[in-house]
Write a structure and sequence with these properties.
Layout lengths: L1 E6 L4 H16 L4 E6 L4 H6 L8 E5 L5 E6 L4 H11 L3
Parallel strand pairs: 1-2
Antiparallel strand pairs: 1-3, 3-4
Length: 89
């Protein structure tokens, strides 16, 4: 599983989620996370059909097929459940 995170420096929700992701990455050090900036990586972001609500977290399998997408701020528990759900994909 790979996690695609789409955010922006101007996004308040993205700043809030940064603390949550720091905790999660400490507990899951082997996560494959790709961070995309909404403005700086616009071509790549368009491939994922990202809307205007940030942050976006997309869980993809090894073939880059989308498994699930979360839009907006999420609780740490929600993210951990999703990681555990897709960890072996």
């Amino acid at each position: 599983m790979r996690i695609i995170k789409i955010g922006a420096v101007w996004c308040p929700g993205c700043l809030v989620m940064k603390k949550v992701w720091n905790k999660i990455t400490n507990d899951y050090p082997n996560l494959d996370i790709v961070n995309l900036d909404y403005d700086m990586n616009s071509n790549e972001v368009q491939k994922y059909e990202a809307g205007k609500v940030l942050p976006i977290v997309i869980f993809v399998d090894e073939d880059n097929h989308e498994l699930e997408r979360l839009i907006g701020e999420q609780s740490e528990d929600t993210l951990r459940r999703m990681i555990d759900k897709y960890e072996n994909n």
